């Protein structure tokens, strides 16, 4: 099946290993560090750096099936292709793929809102209409850059990834150094952070790593994809673990858990103050603004690509709404509209919760599908696949239990949204599972 469709957006061997790693870390680091550190600390308490580490282990198990599938069928179809290879082109595959796309849009609005929160920090503006206005502004900026063409995006994401990883690592080291490598957060009273809270915090930590799926979605374009897709995924996850742990310990060495929770949405900037003074605070704000803006840019590109692919694969309906030009331009508009809507109407913790529900549900569908239908063909270990599925289930159950106590309405929204997505796809595609037709798809 030809994935070109006149839009020239798929070029074989156009992304190097370094470019793929930059793309993965670019999406991950924007959301993970700036948006989620405070929220993870709120659930996990003094153990929050360990939550990042366990999140990486869970993600490592999850990524196994994506790597194995991408090695067998490197495809620009990414997750859509994996699901279709497992379940056939029916509503199960399409619904799970659409959940993935929606979780990416959610991540985009999460990062856009974080951009606004940090940008307003030096002016001591904590809320009000400016947060949603700036959030929508940065999403529109990403849209305009994406329309300008994707040649510049590869180079831009490599430069931005280098600045982000370097800058954030320096922040973590400086904060630890100035505190004499003591960890303030754990010296506070343990509070009421239970085991459920800790396991639930891993659900958000997994969100901080899910950017690796962006690499899967560019499979056919990466040089020597059968080797490099898996390598890019593993390098990205390892790089992010190092950066996240540096930051988590850096924040924990400067602030107590109560202070981290109080400054939940901008905890990095707050942690820079005692460690690095006002200049450090402003530099951290600047770094956050650059990092989140570039993450929105990478994410808008990735989501519009994925939606265009799902349209090509006849997994989602498409309406031009009177727009001209290639399909990817239309999906860019859908992406921007949905992300802007979420950024205006939901706060950071609710956006993150919704993202966790969608992503974990989709990931469980992938793990089960690969285990059930493809594991012998791709030579995958059934034990690893079932472990990944089990970890996802444990984390999802703990997260749901916690949210039912603290914010039951977001659980209701998530369940309604997930069921609606699958019913919508069932109505559109008229069957849950479809027989495989491998020869029809390359």
Automatic annotation (TrEMBL):
Chain ranges passing through the membrane: 20-41, 47-67, 87-107, 127-146, 153-178, 190-212, 233-255, 275-308, 329-346, 352-371, 383-404, 410-429
Keywords: Cell membrane, Membrane, Transmembrane, Transmembrane helix
Membrane topology qualifier: Multi-pass membrane protein
Presence of keyword Calcium: no
Keyword Transmembrane: yes
Compartment annotation: Cell membrane
InterPro entries in the cross-refs: AA/rel_permease1, APC_superfamily
Pfam families: AA_permease_2
Main location: membrane
Protein name: APC family permease
